Amino acid sequence: MTTLPSFLRRHDLLAFAILAALIVIVLPMTLDIFRLNLVGKYLTYAFVAVGLVLCWGMGGILSLGQGVFFGLGGYAMAMFLKLEASSPEATAIQSTPGIPDFMDWNQLTELPAFWIPFQSFTFTLFAIVALPAVLSGLIGYAMFTRRVSGVYFAIITQAIAAIATILIIGQQGYTGGVNGITDLRTLLGWDIRSDSARYTFYFINAALLLGVLFGALYVQRSRLGRLMTAVRTSEDRVRFSGYSVAHIKVFVFCFAAVLSSIGGAMFTLQVGFMSPTLVGVVPSIEMVIYCAVGGRLSVFGAVYGTLLVNWLKTSLSESFPELWLFGLGGIFIAIVMFFPFGLAGLYTSAKDRLFRKRAVEPSAGSESSPGKTPSTSTTATSGTTSTTGLDAKVSAT
Amino acid sequence: MSIEHNTSCVLAIEGLTVSFDGFRAVDDLDLYVDEREIHVVIGPNGAGKTTLLDLICGKTRASAGSIRFRNHELTKLNENRIVHRGVGRKFQNPSIYDDLTVVENLELSFPRGKSVFGSLFFQRDNDVVERIDEVAEMVFLEDHLTSQAGLLSHGQKQWLEIGMLLIQNPELLMLDEPVAGMSMAERAKTADLLNRITDNRSVLVVEHDMKFVEDIADRVTVMHQGAKLAEGSMSDIQANPKVVEVYLGQ
Amino acid sequence: MFSDYSWSELGSIFAMQGFAGLILFSVFVLMALGLAIIFGQMGVINMAHGEFMILGAYVTWLCSGLFETWLPALFGGYFFFAMVAAFAVTALLGSAVEWLMVRHLYRRPLDTLLATWGLSLLMQQGFRSIFGAREVGVSLPDWMLGSIAITDIIEVPINGLFVMALTLVIAVSVWFLLFRSSFGLRTRAVVQNRAMAGATGIDTERVDRMTFAIGCGIAGVAGSAFTMIGSTGPTSGQAYIVDTFLIVVFGGSASLLGTVAAAFSISQAQSTLEFFLSGSMAKVITLVTVVLILMIRPEGLFSPKIRR
Fold it and tell me: I need a surface site. Which of A6, A32, B72, B242 has the fewest CB within 10 A?
């Protein structure tokens, strides 16, 4: 195992391989492009859920407004694509050619100033990362330096999500209103509605997600990850160990925001539009439940949770639309009350039951070498014992 | 009020006052801690001892007065900045990370990588490992390195917390009732530990156990109703009629 | 925009908007009072609070239909009956919810938030299945329709006055209940020191359940009032939940007076702005201001000074 990065454990690698195989090989081979595109859409939600694992599961910061950041990335990409689709030739029949159709319908005669920079793809990519980082940084800094607690923070993020939705819908000349930004056609000249484009975006999305998982795992297993767990359970002690709790919280909140934004941008590319229905309170809270179903502390669980809930949603709401809302409400309640460890918890207990004999080993290892701090490799084993405890133990928030 | 620059004085508290809705928990207190001194604060319940520690470490803001630690004014700083200056505080109830092992508890307190990015890239190298071993041995936990901290005995948790402070190499160590809940043997070991660590630091202790105080104290301050009642060596205090009255009058 | 109107016209506009704002304020107060009791006193976030309100609205609608068909002679006074029924039904449901779900989650406030959100989804779908997806309108008795003219220009709708009077009565009753009755004493004891309250023989579980039920009951009555200013549909509760939480937090969740003051300022700001800007911008500016103030002073307007 000397070639492995030191922070990855054997079971991490296995989980990574299984997920990668699933989304890169199994699904593309067994599903038609329509359904694969749907899976791609679900995987964009997974970006948000993974961010919430760090932010909420580990750090105890419940944000009910991740949709806002999802929307930032999504709208940024949509604005770029819309501008590309609104060239003067393509919009010749409008009263004002060269601007998006919905602006024309709302009697705007020129492109609003804040749209202009999105004519550049480089700027758009930069904005997808920078805008959520700045916004979440400001919000986080204002609140965490004042020690705003979990519940108040959740309510304020919910209000921000509501504000964003009202703003977008109300200013339809500038944002496309309640319908959002639609009728997107090409990315840098390449038709995004073709099957080949959809396949490409799917794989780009999958690769990005796997990369993000890698990064999230690194953070989880680093000292910063241990710190976030410590902050969630003993905030004062962390402060008195010389750390700035506010900085830690701001960082993890920003990290989750940027992840959500990337997901939003990939959503626009794969689905071909962006609307306020993905920005507000309802989708934001739904994305929290994806994370909770996964087990809250597991980044892989977050992906599976997202896939599971969305698959249920699609199958149930087609055949039994009434049943779906009952089902979703029931999922919220059941997860919170009966399955706080979610899918990851089910997986761990199944694994423990299967491999009960193997579980005795790590403690034997520590008994045989008392009196010395274990070196890095045995630390991994004893670390596994304790962090499994961490993983499985969902502290009361 | 100017403060005399006394080079052997690590901590200089003058005129310290804090009131909560009119109640003066600490009232115009003066207290000085010298280098390499173990200074113990005693007093009946409600005298303001824990509040005093809260004020020094930054948990509570003072209403008036000054706290100078090696000529740095502490009253305006945040908790983590005060820790960086070299002040470590142990709480009354063992305040450790229950979910993590002893090693991880000590490692988190290691004074490197305290910024967000520093902690992101922190590696457990040989320096860290050696120092953890060293401190674990000092606090009698060398055989329990991989135990989960939440499963330690009460006395061991106290030692772990002291270890988490020692690993930061503070110049001033503040302990709030460090031997509460410990057996006689454990108290003796703790007294031994405290006497050993004063080579390059001072210790400010709040305690009730008089035998323990006798074993460790260089100087004792008695607090009563937020103010200083008496100060001196242990024998001075025990002979002081005011102190006797306050204690026996309970 | 201001220059289009003369001073007296402006004054009348402000007065009329003020009255419109007062009606909104009354509904806000009723909703926020119920939530302030549950959140401020118990620390429980009930995301289904809007749905409890709509339940009260539906009960009112049922009563109006009932009286119209079976007891037309008594139709004039049906509203009072409806309010009592709304209170009873929502309080009963609140009691059941507390017993089944909330009481297991007291030490996990963020999880309570998620669980009650699930409950709100269940209730919304329940409304849709039972009452249909379309909005229903409540018919009011004649004496409650129309308006009273105070001056030439200023007219005040009667139902608005009714709602304000109702709010006043309920707010005062709640205050009496919490601060002057023995039940209120027991509730405050449980909130401030649960262990001691239990040790002195107070049945803390029963107190919790009744407190939660009363908070929901008040939401039910708010729902009755709500039928006069808006139409009732399965998702109508969602529109106000964000405002209501902000009001409770803005007022400093421990203080009833703060809640009232916060409801007043937010509703007045919104309705005054609404006259001069579009509805959505008025709401956005109001909410943004509240959020900014909360970021600077998270404990709200009226909370006691914290120890640091």
Answer: A32
A289 within domain boundaries:
yes
- Is A331 in CB contact (< 8 Å) with chain C? yes
Question: Taking a C-beta distance cutoff of 8 angstroms, is the pair A150, A395 a contact?
Answer: no
pLDDT at B35 over 80: yes
A156 and C109: CB-CB below 8 Å?
no
Shortest Cα distance, chain A CAs vs residue C109, angstroms? 7
Token pair 């956005």: residue: C284
Which residues form the domain of A197? 10-392
Instruction: Please write the tens of the pLDDT for every residue from A287-313.
Output: 999 999 998 889 999 999 999 999 999
A chain contacts of residue B133, beta-carbon cutoff 8 Å: 372-373
Q: Which domain holds residue B159?
A: 96-167
**Residue A2 falls within a domain, yes or no?**
no
pLDDT for the residue A386: 35
| Average pLDDT for B215-233 | 89
Is C284 close to A143, i.e. CB distance below 8 A?
no
Does residue B101 belong to any structural domain of this protein?
A: yes
Q: Minimal Cα distance from A340: which residue of C? A: C111
**Average pLDDT along chain B:** 87
Test A332 with C118 for CB contact under 8 angstroms. Answer: yes
CB contact under 8 A, C308 and B60: yes
Residue A2, pLDDT above cutoff 60? no
State the pairing for strand pair A190-191/B87-90: unpaired
Residue A164 is predicted with a pLDDT of 94
Residue B151 lies in a domain: yes
Q: pLDDT value at position A392? A: 33
Residue A355 has pLDDT above 80, yes or no: no
The count of C-alpha atoms lying within 13 angstroms of the C-alpha of B7, restricted to the half-sphere facing its C-beta, is 0
Distance CA C276, CA C288 (A): 17
Q: What is the pLDDT of residue B119?
A: 85
Q: How many domains does chain B have?
A: 1
Distance from CA of B60 to the nearest CA of C (A): 5
Total domain count, chain A: 1
How confident is the model over A126-142, as a mean pLDDT?
Answer: 95
Helix (H) or strand (E) holding B13: strand B9-20
Residue C181, token pair as written in the block: 């009755």
What is the arithmetic mean of pLDDT over B104-120?
86
Please give the residue that has the higher pLDDT: either C14 or A268.
A268
Residues of C in contact with B50 (CB under 8 A): none
- Band (pLDDT 50/70/90 cuts) for residue A270 is very high
Q: What mean pLDDT is predicted for residues A60-83? A: 94
Whether A376 maps to a domain, the answer reads yes
Distance of CA A265 to the CA centre of its chain: 12
Any C CB within 8 A of A151 CB: yes
Write out chain A residues lying below 8 Å of C129, CB-based.
322
Interchain CB contact of C306 with B (< 8 Å): no
**Cβ separation C308–B20 shorter than 8 A:** no
Q: How far is CA A155 from the centre of its chain?
A: 20
Residue B195: inside a domain: no
Q: Which of A224, A386, A390 is closest, CB to CB, to B119?
A: A224
Asked if C118 lies within 8 A of A336 by C-beta distance, the reply is yes
Q: Spell out which residues of chain B touch residue C306, defining contact as CB-CB under 8 Å.
A: none
| Shortest distance, CA B232 to any CA of chain A (angstroms) | 30
Write down the residue that tokens 């039920």 correspond to.
Answer: C213
Provide, as residue numbers in chain A, all residues whose Cβ is less than 8 Å from the Cβ of B50: none
C124 in A contact zone (CB under 8 Å): yes
* Secondary-structure breakdown of chain B: helix, strand, coil percentages, each rounded to the nearest 5: 40, 25, 35
pLDDT, tens only, A20-34: 999 999 998 999 889
Sequence-distant (≥ 6) Cβ neighbours of residue A144 within 8 angstroms: A245, A246, A249, A250, A253
**Is residue B50 one of the residues assigned to a domain?**
no
Question: How big is chain A by its Cα radius of gyration, in Å?
Answer: 23
Backbone φ and ψ for A229, nearest 5 degrees, come out as -60, -40
* CB proximity A178 to C under 8 Å: no
